[in-house]
């Protein structure tokens, strides 16, 4: 019984990776980048004058911002279907991504 179940799973995985497997690879890339940026953003914790303050260096903020920019670009290009589109739809989406990411990054430096 279990052997049949494992064979079914192997056949399904083989069919996924056999042909057009870019969505799986893009998804795995997004997962790895998310885990890496989470490790960077967690950083060491410090207590300052009785208050719990998360110490995140400016370099780690910039690295996480770069990772978020690359993840956003992957999502816009592959999962929103705008990779082969030219003109204003791509510019609007990528412009919004850069604007929001820039504002969030600036707020981290001036908080």
From TrEMBL:
UniProt superkingdom: Bacteria
Keywords, ordered alphabetically: Cell membrane, Membrane, Transmembrane, Transmembrane helix
Topology with respect to the bilayer: Multi-pass membrane protein
Protein name, as recorded: Uncharacterized protein
Major location category of this protein: membrane
Transmembrane feature ranges: 21-41, 61-80, 92-110
Locations listed in the record: Cell membrane
Record-linked InterPro entries: Cyt_c_oxidase_su4_prok
